[in-house]
Amino acid sequence: MIRISDLTVAFGGVKAIDALTAELDAPVCGLIGPNGAGKTTLVNVLSGLVLPRSGTVAVDGADLLGLKPIERVRFGLRRSFQTEQVVEDLSVWDNVRALLDHVPHARGDAVAQVTRALAYTGLLDAATVLGHRLNLFQRRMLEIAKSLVGAPKLLLLDEPGAGLTEQEAGALRRVIGSVHAFCGAQVLLIDHDVDLIAATCTQTLVLDFGRRLALGPTREVLDDPAVRKAYLGTE
Ligand SMILES: Nc1ncnc2c1ncn2[C@@H]1O[C@H](COP(=O)(O)OP(=O)(O)OP(=O)(O)O)[C@@H](O)[C@H]1O
């Protein structure tokens, strides 16, 4: 559960997030809005890359803003970036294994955890392949696999579907839609692909100019005339 209260982030005179209050409690939540709406800024606040001017954010009851970025990772926060953070000269296995150096996990079960995450994301057969040899889809899956080891509580996925083929997007949908069943973590998904949001997210938050334009069940939100006008470009 993510509880955001009266959150404001300003870059000079621009309020990227403007007095935002929202409770996100679905296993997979969507975060959408037009370009510049504040989506990435919100994810940056959650992961600790940006400090808000005011407000609070709690995840599963814990005050997130009181934790340093590395403490948030230990707490169970995971994030994928629009540009994948793959170590190019490490194998797929070692890319995932490296995450476990930074987070708590039961001693000795690293092999089992990495194996399980790679199997879940379809990367087990590619475990020995070096990062620079992976295609775009495999890189996206590797980002998710890294998020799944070491007791994650919340996955922040920033446009994981961008540039994928329809078949790959289908596979991504299945992986994201089952993350909660796989490891119990909540997912906050930013994507411009409304079909991906509709297929995976039961609850969706829409931002516009840093403000909350809508929050609720995804189907209702996507049918909201104000959302259709601001985001989808239709009346
Ligand atoms: N580091 C920064 N310095 C100054 N302004 C910034 C910074 N980061 C974001 N902004 C501004 O804050 C606003 C929100 O940007 P943000 O990147 O969060 O939007 P977004 O919804 O993620 O957009 P997109 O869909 O294009 O990724 C924009 O007006 C942007 O120009």
TrEMBL record:
Q: One GO molecular function term?
A: ATP hydrolysis activity
Sequence ranges assigned to domain ABC transporter in this UniProt record = 2-234
Q: Which Pfam families match?
A: ABC_tran, BCA_ABC_TP_C
Alphabetically list the UniProt keywords: ATP-binding, Cell membrane, Membrane, Nucleotide-binding, Transport
Gene3D superfamilies named in the record: P-loop containing nucleotide triphosphate hydrolases
GO cellular component term, pick one: plasma membrane
* PROSITE patterns from the UniProt entry: ABC_TRANSPORTER_2 (PS50893)
What superkingdom does the record give? Bacteria
Q: What name appears for this protein in its UniProt entry?
A: ATP-binding cassette domain-containing protein
Q: Which organism is it from?
A: Variovorax gossypii
